[in-house]
Amino acid sequence: MSKRVAIIGAGPAGLTAAYLLAKGNQEVVVFEKDPQYVGGISRTESYKGYHFDIGGHRFFSKSKEVEDFWTEILGDEMLERPRSSRIYYNNHFFSYPLVAFEALRKLGIFESALCVLSYLKAKVFPVKNPTNFEEWVTNQFGQRLFNIFFKTYTEKVWGIPCSEISADWAAQRIKGLSLSSAIFNALFKPNKKATDKDKVIKTLIDSFRYPKQGPGMMWEACAEKSKAMGVTLHMNCGVQKIEYSNHSWTVQTTSQGHVTGFDYVLSSAPMRELVANVLPAFPATVAANAAALGYRDFLTVVLICKDEDAFSDNWIYIHDPKVKVGRVQNFKSWSPFMVPDPSMACYGLEYFCFEGDGLWTSSDADLIALGKKEIEKIGLTNASAVVDGYVVRQPKAYPVYDQFYKARVESVRDALANYPGLYLVGRNGMHKYNNQDHSMMTAMLAAKNIIAGKELYNLWDVNEDAEYHEGGDRGTSGRMVPQKNN
Fold first, then answer.
1. Rg of the chain over CA atoms, in angstroms?
2. Residues 6+ apart with CB under 8 A from 234
3. CATH number of 295-399, picked from 3.90.660.20, 3.30.70.1150, 3.40.50.10700, 1.10.8.60
4. What is the DSSP secondary structure assignment for residue 323, as one 8-state letter?
């Protein structure tokens, strides 16, 4: 029997769910607050014919289901791109992943020896049960390499000391990677087959797929195909309240008023915002936990330059504390179709900040001037080569993994048992710093549950590699109790 489903947010999670539910003959309405773009943080913005990604999005997944979805939506419009990235530290550029002898030469024999000794010390005397980012990374690489290649960049990203960042984030983002694995990969790089994806450490992949004109191309196509199957997509339509009453949901919006009669609500809105806008209200302690969840924002200063063959990397991590920029994207290296004039280049300088702070509130002109100054200081191109600029601000880009986030999220999960038909999906919906394939997999499983009319899958059991691992009965700790999928 067909169900009526409201989806909050037209990002990867929301649109994946909309498309699959429509294929399953469900009635779907999507509410997106952005007036122009779908895709959320995976959108592609444009300026004078130049296209740019918001943060850099590789299309690589260990999940065949996700890879097949991408192929179904875009097919031949996906390029196979070489992965090229480096780290800028102490006036040197280091290949990333690590090239052993290059790192040895650029760090110098003495520093390299100290790094090896520091690593050996960490292996002999590791921190037992590491709880924060610094402890986890030090166990994997040693204190000295942590200080060189992790501390500065990570604290730029999060705006808090590494000792206050949960070890969960390190385990999730650099899973399986250690100094020994990086060196082994550099010295004995195996020939990988397509069937070996499940064995690859994501941090070390050397190629990925990418839509010709950026990730937004994927989600624009997905939105159009969804609408062709009957999905209603409301743009410029923020959700103010959702209310459960008489076994159905009502969604109160900024432009459509009250829309009623939904059997399910799938939300990719930030957990902090959603919990505050649900009726009946969450218990006070749960609401307080949700309200305390943190987010990190960032902005991209786009510089359109004369192409002087300055660098060919997809992106470069900036580990120099003397500049504010944290990462530099080269959009032409992601795809040549992103830049309309082959004599030009387009770079994106990413500055991590908090919404409302000094960087965030700076004028576009001041930010472009800062970007020109810093890209020349790093040595990537001359400020005189820059002919134009543009600024994109992205609020709530990253859910913060501080020492308290896990307990706060858990309290919200527990309380969802009292809200039948409400699913949280995606990065901000689940407060999970994930890649888009994880967001998509949570949406895929939610769609399967809705179409089946029963809880086959617990969305919280999807791991960072978009793999589903049945976690068993959580009892009263969540509304979704996974069952055997017969």
1. 23
2. 29, 30, 31, 32, 253, 255, 256
3. 3.90.660.20
4. S
pTM score, whole prediction: 0.89
pLDDT per residue as tens digits for the range 443-452: 999 999 999 9
User: CA separation (Å) from 212 to 30, 39, 49, 59, 357?
Assistant: 26, 15, 14, 12, 35
Look up tokens 């960087």; give the residue: 359
Residue labelled with tokens 């387009």:
346
Q: Structure tokens of 418?
A: 């009292």
Contacts of 413 (CB under 8 A, 6+ apart): 460, 477, 478
Which residue bears the tokens 């607050």? Answer: 33
Q: Where are the beta strands (DSSP E) in 60-172?
A: 78-82, 85-89, 92-96
Domain extent listing, the chain: 4-48+215-292+403-477, 85-199, 295-399
What is the biggest distance separating any 2 CA atoms in the chain, rounded to whole angstroms?
72
Give the Cα separation of 80 and 475 in Å (integer): 45
pLDDT band at 470 (very low <50, low <70, confident <90, very high): low
Q: Domain 4-48+215-292+403-477 belongs to what topology?
A: FAD/NAD(P)-binding domain (3.50.50)
